[in-house]
Amino acid sequence: MKFNLNTSVVKTREERLGTIIGWKTGKASELSRDSSYTCAGCRGNGGKRLCETIGPFTQGSGCSEQMVECQAGNIRDAVLIQHAPVGCGTGQACYNSIYRNGLAIRNLPVENIKIINTNIKETDMVFGALGKLEQSIEDAWNRHHPKAIFIATSCATGIIGEDVDSVASKMQKKFKIPVIPMYCEGFRSKHWSTGFDAAQHGILRQIVRKNPKEKQEDLVNVINLWGSDVFTPILSKLGLRVNYVVDMATVKDLEQMSEAAATVSFCNTLSSYLAAGLEQQFGVPEVKAPQPYGIAGTDAWIREIGKVTHREESAEIYIEEEHRRIAPKIEELKKSLKGRKGYAATGSAYSHGLIAVLKELGIEVDGSLVFHHDPSYDDNDPKKDSLKFVVDNYGDVPNFSVSNRQQYQFYGLLKNVKPDFIIIRHGGLAPLASKMGIPAVPLGDEHFAVGYQGIINLGETILDIMARKKFNEDLKAHVKLPYTKWWLHQKDPYILQKQKILQKQN
């Protein structure tokens, strides 16, 4: 895809990648096969099209604006303006907690996020709210003197067609800092991951240094969220320094992304747009390799970094050392976890990585839920096809599902697979599993399972969780699920997608 940094509006994932948010349960290999039919057209899979399964209602999800909050809102010396009704600001409490925890585990000064809401009201929907936006930018400058100011749009501003670009341009001239509009209305895209792209598009347009004087041959951009610093111990073995972006970075960190030797990430979903944009627009190579999960993925990832940064010998030494170090512990974990059945329920590419780690530990994975599916990524490189990599290297997953965090479907998915535990990152689904007697491994630190040590981390945590399964069994015995008998006895979690059944129930 050709990136267009002349416009402030990013194309949605549906337009660019053919992203879907629903796919009835089938084999992971079937979804991988059908994904060769993307938004770019047929790619020779026998004419079979990737079909999206859409339900009649949505119980809950995230939105693009929230993802802008957790990207632009987490830059330490910047301010985010939410040009939105105050209700859109309720996420600030959650993201403030995550931000503070992230700073703490990175040994950075702990502070609150700096997000200002313009409080659009009914009268503003009639007469416009650009005056409020200007005043909020003035307030942001006077209170914080930031190095950059981001503006997140909302459904409300999209409906009335606010000219955010003109205000941003005016205030940028006034304060001599980047003032960056990001169009992330909730209705713009059916999946929240477009919000990552909106924030990263604005950073590429207005913050990344356009003409760097020189490259830093030992600097690697690591696109991440709030996780612990696991990449410094890994990359330092290759003589490389880490430039963490976007969350908890400074504006200076973002500016120097164009000077780096390469870009990597822990998750293709998060990094797709920014990594591809840095390569296309600034000549910073994206490390095109499987994600760093499990032995096979981490080996390939380390070797590709070594190749891109001309450190092949150091990469091989590190791989050999780590293989020797982890082998005895992994064998021990395999014996303890033998016969266990796990289930991953997270974002798309992240779930693929977790499946690899579970299978490295000898855990059976009969099912997995991803909240959306990208048939391709922005660079369209087959080395980054994380779903195909898992199938090819670790075998198929017979009950693979795509569902946008719908609890009513999750019940049926778990009932059919009957896992011993689930791995999850996003809120809302773990309590349901607990009520079904299934304990959850909550990965608040998204880097927890990365790399060679990540295999051991996850294995040990699963053992800890399984030791406390009695608590979940007690919950199951005493808690009633909020569904009708008709639904509790359904075998197909996607049955409501069939219109005749829905009409009959009504």
From TrEMBL:
It is an enzyme of class 1 (oxidoreductase). Gene3D superfamilies: Nitrogenase molybdenum iron protein domain. Keywords: Oxidoreductase. InterPro entries: Nase/OxRdtase_comp1 (IPR000510), NifE-like (IPR049939). Its EC number is 1.18.6.1. Residues 72-464 form the Nitrogenase/oxidoreductase component domain. Pfam families: Oxidored_nitro. The keyword Metal-binding does not apply. GO terms for molecular function: nitrogenase activity. It comes from the Bacteria. PANTHER family: NITROGENASE IRON-MOLYBDENUM COFACTOR BIOSYNTHESIS PROTEIN NIFE. This is Nitrogenase molybdenum-iron protein alpha chain. It comes from Clostridium luticellarii. The gene is nifD_3.
